[in-house]
Amino acid sequence: MKRAVLIAVGSELLRFGRADTNTVWISAQLDRLGMETVARVAVLDEPAAIVPTIRAAVEMADLVILTGGLGPTEDDRTREALAQVLERPLEHDAEKEAELRRRFAAVELPWTERQARQARRPAGARWIANGVGSADGLLVDHAGTTIVALPGVPSEMKPMLAAHVDDWVGVSSRQAVVLSTLRVFGRGEAAVEARISDLYDRPGIDVTILSGPGEVEIGIRSVADRRETAVLQLNATCDAMKARLGGDVYVDDKRSLAGIVGDLLTERGETLAVAESCTAGLLAAESTTVPGSSRWFRGGWVVYANELKQQLAGIDAATLERHGAASEPVARRLAEAVRTDCGADWGIGVTGIAGPTGGSEDKPVGLVHVALASRDATQHWRTLRPGDREGVRRGSVAFALDCLRRALIGSAR
Hints:
About 40% of the residues lie in helices and about 25% in strands. By secondary structure, the chain is an alpha/beta fold. The strands form four sheets. Strands 2-1-3-8-7-6 form a six-stranded mixed β-sheet, sandwiched between helices.
C-alpha cells in the first residue's frame, strides 16, 4: 500500500490555538482511495522547520502533501522551503503573474507587488490551478516521491485536492479500504486487548484501540484488492470480536449511548424517567440530546438536597441517617419512586460522591450507586468512577445508561 505524509504549515496552528482540520480531512480522502497516511504534522512558517520536515517525509512516503504558506505575505514561506529541499532556484513565472493580474482585475481587487510572490515556483515545479482563490498549488516529483503544496484555506484546498487526488494516488496500486468502530463499555483498554489481541494478525486487518471516559473504542481497518473481500474480512473480524466481548460491545456505529438506549426503548414501546442526585440533571440532559427523545423520555427529578429526596421520593429520615444519601437504599428508592410518579416503564436512580470533597474511608470520592427499576424488579450497582468532579458525574451518566442498555438486551453486567 502506498504511503502519505501530510504537513500543515502555519504558525497559528502552534502558537494561537488554531485547529488543523486540513490534514484530518485529507487523510480521510486518501484512506478511501487505499493510501495510508503514516504521519500528520504541523510546522511553523519557517524554512528551518519546513525544510527538514519535508526531507523526512520524502524518506517515508510516496506522496507528501503540504497545506498553507503559499500566500502573498512575508510569512508565507512554503515555496522557498520547497526550493531548498529540491536544491533548485525559485523562478518568477511572468505568464502566471499576468494571469493573476487578470483575475484581480476581473473582480475589481487592487493589485500590489506582494501578490507577485504567488507567481514564483521552484524550477521544474508544475502549477495546480486554484479555481477559488489566488494561491495556485505546486506539484513536483522528487526522489521517487510526489510532493504537492496546496493553499491552507479549506474552501480552496478541498476542490483542488478532489480534482487531482486520483492522479496523485494512482490507479494501478489502489486498494479497497473499509472501516468500522466497536465501542466497549465497562472494561479497561488492557482488559479489552487481552481478549482480542490474537485477532489483530488476520490478513488485511489493522486494529487501533483508543481509551476514553468510560469506554474503549476499537478501530478496525480492512484492506484488500477488491471491496467485497475487504468487507468480508471486516465483518468476520467484527463478529469475532463481538463474540469475545459479549454484552460489553454496545455499538458498531456512531450513535451515542443515549441514542442506542432510546432506539431500544422505542422498539419496545417503553419509557424512562430518572431521579438524580450527584449527576444533577446530566442524565436527563444526555437523554434529551437525542432527536425524538420525547417518544421515550418522560422526565424526572434533580434531588440534590436530602429534603427533596424525602419529599419527592418518600425516603424517610431514618434511612438517610443510617445509610447516608450515597447508598444502595436511597438509589433503589429514587429509581422506584420516579418510575411510578412519572408513569414510566423504567426508572433510574443515581446518587454518589462527585468530589473533590465529601469522601471518607468507607465512601471515597467517586463512589456512585445506580439503581434501575422496572415493573418486575429493582437492580442495584455500586461503582467507583475515576477522574475529577466532572469525570465522575459524566462517567456516572454513561454507567447508568449502560445498565439500562444491558437490561434491554438481556445482557447481565
